[in-house]
Amino acid sequence: MNEDAIIAVRMPQPNVNDEEVTLVNWCVVDGGQAVEGQPLCEVETSKSVGEVPAPASGVVRQTARVGDIVAVGQIFAYVGPSIEAIDEYISSQEGWSPDDEVQQTREPPGATAGAIELARRYGIDPANVPATGKVRRSDVERFIARRGLTQPAGKPAAAPAPGNRLPPALADRVRDEGELSDHQSAIAEHLARTQARLVVAHAVMDASMEAATRWMNTKRQAGVITGPMPILLHAAAAAICSQPKLASFRLGRRVYRYRSIDIAYAARSSDGRLFTPVIRSVDNRGLDELASECGRLSMAVFRGQLEPADMSGSCLTISALSEHPVRLHVGLQNAYQSAILTAGAVHDELTLVDGKPAAIPTITLTLSYDHGLMDGWEAAAALEAARAAFEAIHD
What we know:
The termini are far apart. The longest helix is centred in the C-terminal third of the chain and has 17 residues, at 287-303. The protein has 395 residues and is α+β, with helices and mostly antiparallel strands. The protein contains 8 helices and 19 strands.
């Protein structure tokens, strides 16, 4: 890099479904030397932990701390020829240096969960914390450090927001089990924001699993262990091809459509956390290839080795509860998606075949969709295409 160049490092979007990430580890210490392309830090999205590479080689000035929730696009570090040059640049650009306190009086437009939690421990009102935009954990930490505050021993946390207060009548009937983990909290906030933008409706349809069950049994006899997920992916791609709106989402009055049929599916890590790895170009892959890719990504999830790139850019998500005796369940859409396809376990439906009762393996599909983008007829047509794909599987 040019020895006079200062690069402001902005947080990339490792997962299209997340608008902010948690900084969990610095790979280069403050004042240390970064190498272009080598890991600068590690971040946690609502679905995974991954590395952010350094955009250039040079000295690093950290402007966020481990534990901070950092918005996508927010500056969290600078890379330059020296700490002094970087601090001088920051001061000239923003009127701030590491030793000067920003004097601002305004009502902040909100605070992140991490900022609220830390401020509560110190009895601080987040509205009094200087920040540019939303108050973040790093803003609260800077506020605490500059004032030399210490956490009051034995002092209870500040009162929660009105909507989160426990009714007095329940005080003796419940036990406080602490806060959600950062991972759980991030998922809850992410889904709450997404659901607020959608007009959610649901359509349900049964599909015969006779052909699909034969395919799975054939694979198992050949030593390939697989479940219904590859077939669900195949069926979801058929549904999208039938009703392309499933690959679209709306922001206000504008509609955006994904250029390829990349589909995510829900998978659990060894410690019970949910992640959504993405299978690319599902419509151009056969069942064997889909099964192989599912196996690779599911193993990466289980081992905690999933990369951020493995979870970005999906147009639809699939969630299956095939290991539990659940007939039907309703999923929640992820951000920048309009639909989620869910499936229960395979169960037997009694029907007449040639006048005789027969048990037919059946799966129940539920399509949750944005009624602001597509209507019930279109949802039903999509499910019909998925059902047809299930029943046309060949060994």
